[in-house]
Design goal:
mainly alpha, 404 residues, disordered N terminus, globular, disordered C terminus, two-stranded antiparallel ribbon, 2 strands
Length: 404
């Protein structure tokens, strides 16, 4: 994982409800430079994944949902010109998880933007149900867990139904794989990394939590939903998804550690018993200094990598599928073609792929989402033009996929 560039902190940040970040006091030139770097990385052949990871991790993340629609698929090695077909409603019939998925999706109203019309939300909830069941149907080795829908809805809202299927399927077979076993043993194994991190950084805090016998269950919902279930503001969820998509699968547990470390004084001053400490830690603050915590989590990962922590006796009893497959997954992302090349291959057929590089099978219905991109106007035209293109895309991913 390439370490992101560290920027000086400014006076704070604002964000629109759709996740677009506007930083107070941040020079426009810095944002423009980041846009240029992302644009160049996306158009390099092969795509410059390391630069995209750095952009996603560094301060402000990927800035807008329009950029996320272009970068997130690359971080997961998803070809936007070879997306799965929209799920058939017949796929729901007889699925063993249908009733539980339906219940969870119906309870997910707060995950949709405030002010959204009821009929619009109901359409999205139907799509959310279809995405989850389609991924599970195509991957029988994956098992549904409560909280999975909190991850899926984030991708649905940003990239639309068909691209969400492709991205969630890849994510479920890699970053989320340990959570999707038939039992929670692998999930507990990942949670077990939390205490060794705390012990390395703050032995006193670690000792306090051991005396309280609080365990790590307070962080379960954080981990398995990538914090989507516990954060009230969508912009914060998006910022963390930028970070996690560009990082090691265990980064979410390192982020849990820095949240606990950030609240060290609160923890140490509460009653040293399980009920008190669990209640305190399970109520996650909504005003966390996210950029600072991201930097700190990344530093802890580099200083105490999973391989070092895994030497602990408690972590040797089980092997993580996500961890063991991550290196190969990272290497596979380095050989992606830019979207302009993929688009030409789509029109010319798979024979047009140059020798030595993997060809891409054409889809039955191509998505040319990238045509309606900020890159069509160029990052150098300024914030006004960028805002026009960005606004046109914010709520139309599915509509665009159907047009092309």
């Amino acid at each position: 994982m390439r370490k992101g560039k560290k920027h000086q902190h400014n006076t704070g940040s604002q964000a629109t409800g759709n996740g677009n970040v506007k930083r107070q006091g941040e020079p426009e030139s810095r944002k423009k430079q980041k846009l240029v770097e992302i644009h160049q990385a996306l158009n390099s052949d092969p795509v410059d994944i390391e630069t995209l990871r750095t952009a996603a991790i560094s301060e402000g993340g990927l800035l807008t949902n329009d950029i996320r629609r272009k970068v997130w698929p690359k971080l997961l090695s998803v070809n936007v010109y070879n997306l799965p077909a929209k799920p058939s409603k017949d796929a729901r019939e007889g699925h063993k998880d249908y009733n539980q998925v339906l219940l969870d999706v119906r309870r997910s109203m707060r995950r949709f933007p405030k002010g959204m019309r009821t009929d619009q939300r109901e359409v999205l909830q139907e799509q959310l149900t279809d995405i989850i069941l389609d991924v599970l149907r195509r991957n029988p080795q994956l098992h549904y867990y409560q909280g999975y829908h909190d991850i899926v809805v984030t991708f649905l809202l940003v990239v639309g139904e068909r691209m969400a299927i492709a991205m969630v399927e890849t994510l479920s077979n890699h970053h989320l794989r340990d959570f999707m076993d038939p039992t929670m043993d692998s999930t507990k194994h990942i949670l077990n990394y939390l205490m060794p991190i705390l012990e390395e950084v703050d032995p006193e805090l670690h000792c306090f939590m051991l005396r309280a016998e609080v365990g790590t269950i307070f962080a379960l919902s954080w981990l398995i939903t990538w914090y989507g279930h516990v954060l009230s503001e969508f912009r914060h969820v998006l910022r963390l998804y930028d970070f996690f998509l560009a990082s090691h699968p265990l980064m979410a547990i390192y982020f849990a550690a820095v949240i606990v470390l950030h609240r060290e004084e609160e923890v140490k001053t509460c009653e040293c018993d399980m009920a008190s400490v669990h209640h305190l830690l399970s109520q996650i603050p909504q005003d966390l200094p996210y950029e600072d915590l991201i930097v700190r989590a990344q530093r802890l990962f580099l200083r105490y990598p999973p391989a070092l922590l895994a030497k602990r006796a408690a972590l040797q009893s089980r092997k993580s599928i996500a961890i063991s497959s991550f290196k190969d997954f990272q290497l596979a992302t380095l050989q992606q073609r830019p979207d302009a090349v993929l688009r030409r291959q789509l029109h010319r057929g798979p024979a047009a792929a140059p020798p030595g590089l993997p060809g891409e099978a054409p889809p039955t219905a191509a998505s040319q989402l990238v045509k309606v991109a900020v890159w069509g106007i160029s990052a150098t035209l300024g914030a006004a033009a960028l805002a026009v293109a960005q606004t046109a895309m914010e709520w139309a991913p599915d509509f665009l996929l159907q047009m092309f």
